[in-house]
Amino acid sequence: MERLTLQETLQIVQLYYENGRSVKSVNRALRPIYAVDESFAEDPEESIRRRSQQLAGLSYGTTWAILRKDIGLKAYKIQSVQELTPGDLPKPHNFSFRALGKLAEDPHFGTQIVSSDEGLFGLIATDWATAGIYKSRQRLYDLYAEKSYNHNEEFILYVRNYSKLFKKVCYAAKSLNIKNKIKNSTNKTKMTWKLIDSETGRVRDRNQDIELCVDNTIIKSNEEIAIVFDKYFSDIPISTTKSLQSSPALAESLLKDNVNECKVSFSFRPISADDIARIFRTIDIKNTTDLWGISVKIISSIIDEIAPHLAIIFNNCIKSGEFPDLMKHSKVIPLFKAGSMSDPSNFRPISVLPTCSKIFEKIILNQLVSHFNVNKLLHNNQFGFTKGRSTADAGVELYRYIVKAWEESHDALGGFCDLSKAFDCVQHETLIGKLRHYGIKNTALNLLTSYLHGRTQKVEVNGKRSSGSAVDMGVPQGSILGPFLFFCLYK
Q: What is the pTM (predicted TM-score) of this model?
């Protein structure tokens, strides 16, 4: 709802008092921002008059507390208000709305802004504060207001104890909310770090202003920056692999000499609308939109209606061995890592694939993993994509080897490899050859080949996009199927 600025509100109220404007002329304008009490909507004149009388004769502290409540500071965060002291207000008996004129210069008044959790009163737009907490907070406001003129020792002690209890309840509610978020998340480690970053203020704004320096030229235009990033990201695989002499034929020959070929020929099974709806509900619900402006959250509201149509499309793709071209276009967002923000190499690409593609990829992945598990194509030390195992088990296994070596008075040595731009540098022909060796042939292999070939990307920077470029190497980052295909290559 669009709200009036404080200046506009002050003008309306002042005109109302000085020029005798009718109640109806100000009711509509004042109601959204100056709801002083429950009777305001029915009789704003009487409501404002009564509130002014209540302020008369009260101390500065009490006036300030009530004023904060009246003008909606509990619902808005305004930096300049924190600098306004009770001494800046007029004498209570001369109270007038014109006294708020100092705030009129603040451009943020009337604009709803999510407040940071400063202290225990920063409950604005929080997902952990219950209705009871909000009610208790308002009670605490009222107690603080009364405390400014009620100096009874028992009352002051009561306010102090109430404040301590309120803080304890807030801490408990927030702690429970964090625990539930971690407990209910599909990726607990990721959610834990997300919460840590959020609480410590380390969350970066993806829409921050970027200025690049290319060939001693400063680039500020978002569209030009998107073009620079597009070229840089598409050149990464070429520059990384130009010194390598890869041979798909040699890789396939080594594979045949060391790994037995799977004799079971794999083919994708047709799927039903119920399968699609069920599989879709295993995908994380996010608001991130793809190149077409569609998010998983949007699809979640209509999945039951579109599932039959998607089943027809996906089954035709399985039958023909062709992956839809429109599902091969990705949106790439450059995410700053560290270092200088003017250097493109300090950004990593975050790919957002078409939402419907995620559903189809999940279907393909489930059937591929089943084939690998049934035919025991996974290595004993493979922890990813293995039922009942996770990367945490890999850490446990490493720890077990270290402890065993220590108990036997042996040295424990570990070799760790970090593959530079690993996903970006996957050779398609080598990967296709390996998939064929694992029993994926004919139409099934054609579908995966089609999935890899003919992909494009467009870089987006603050709403501006590049014209796009072809992606001739690698497996799609950010995809559901990509990590498994990468594993197949390096297995």
A: 0.61
